[in-house]
Design brief:
377 residues, mainly alpha, 15 helices
């Protein structure tokens, strides 16, 4: 018989009519295989349950953004039920307006997508024909598939439409999460009172997540409005869709603006020509440099950054697990995991590896002792 304490293995053996204790080395290989198998099962379980998990994650995302507003209304002595009703009514109103303005554009864009793809192939073939090429243009187009970004956008918008099928599930989940938001800190304080866990961990964690998502949402909204204005001035088809795309992909730092700029540039090439496509490309580049390179780091701070490699891998991983919506939630999910790791002393090195390397992550003891640099970078 053996007992394990996580560091060594204790055995009890019978010898000479007496039970004696024998110590052995832990089987590290077996533990690693079991842990890897558990991770694989968890990943495939999430992928199988994406129809349930994706609406729930979207509801959590909305609830986290709205929680500071709820706390502000509670400080004004507004009853929790009325405050939740006002917030949820606002969410429903915003989503209803967005659906009214964008829903028809999504359907029309999806219906015209084959025409755009065909016109893009013709324009690229004409452009290549102006040069003395020694290869088959059709074979080149088959290899690079230049219309694939348009198909990616169509799949993303289709995923958004399917998400609205779970509208009531998302709304009811947001309601219950907001109602629990006022009592959850007190419950956790009672649970952690008799343990060795840090009672301020949950408060630091939720504050960091709310701050990140709140600021990121405001910056993404400004980015979407500017992209919509730019494409409207040029006269590009479906400017609301390109503003929505810029808003959504701004949650993906570094490469998000690049992904959001490709479909409108391709459409401008099809609809107008090379000059207008270049103008839109320069406009998106100016947005990326101004907002993503100058304004956002000053407002957000450098302590919550992710490395470019982690951003790209999270985009691929969560997109594979949860589909197009997982791509949009990839960085908020990874950012939440990084903040959770950063708040613990043992897991802080993992958070440093995930970070951009611009500023070291302080251990939990420093944050708990009241270091003013904690979560205020």
């Amino acid at each position: 018989m053996g007992l394990g304490d996580g560091r060594r293995t204790v055995r009890f053996v019978r010898h000479g009519g007496k039970t004696i204790e024998a110590q052995g080395k832990p089987n590290i290989g077996t533990a690693a295989v079991i842990s890897a198998a558990a991770v694989v099962v968890l990943i495939y379980g999430m992928q199988a349950a994406q129809r349930i998990l994706v609406p729930f994650l979207v509801a959590v995302f909305l609830a986290v953004i709205c929680t500071p507003l709820l706390h502000g209304m509670r400080r004004l002595r507004i009853p929790a039920g009325i405050a939740v009703f006002v917030i949820v009514a606002g969410i429903i109103g915003i989503l209803a307006l967005a659906g009214a303005f964008v829903g028809g554009s999504i359907a029309e864009f999806t219906a015209r997508l084959p025409f755009y793809e065909q016109q893009l192939d013709i324009k690229l073939a004409d452009l290549a024909g102006r040069f003395d090429t020694q290869f088959s243009v059709s074979e080149l187009l088959d290899q690079i598939q230049p219309a694939s970004p348009m198909g990616l956008v169509a799949n993303l918008f289709t995923g958004l439409q399917s998400l609205f099928a779970n509208f009531f599930l998302i709304i009811f989940t947001v309601i219950f999460l907001l109602l629990e938001a006022s009592t959850m800190p007190r419950k956790l304080q009672l649970v952690l009172a008799g343990s060795h866990a840090d009672p301020d961990y949950f408060k630091r964690f939720t504050h960091s997540v709310q701050r990140y998502l709140g600021i990121k949402t405001l910056i993404s909204l400004v980015t979407g409005i500017l992209a919509w204005t730019l494409t409207s001035i040029i006269g590009l088809d479906f400017p609301l869709l390109w503003g929505l795309l810029a808003f959504l992909f701004n949650y993906v730092p570094t490469i998000g603006s690049l992904i959001a700029s490709i479909p409108p540039i391709v459409l401008a090439l099809v609809q107008f020509g090379l000059a207008q496509a270049a103008i839109i490309g320069v406009g998106y580049l100016a947005l990326n440099v101004t907002i993503g390179g100058l304004i956002e780091p000053r407002v957000m701070g450098r302590g919550l950054g992710l490395s470019t490699l982690v951003v790209f891998l999270s985009l691929v991983f969560w997109g594979w697990v949860f589909g197009p919506i997982g791509m949009l939630l990839s960085v908020p999910l990874t950012m939440t995991a990084k903040i959770a790791l950063e708040s613990g002393e043992r897991t802080a090195p993992l958070a440093i590896l995930m970070g951009s390397g611009e500023e070291p992550v302080l251990p939990r003891s420093a944050g708990a002792s009241g270091d003013p640099r904690r979560h205020h970078s």
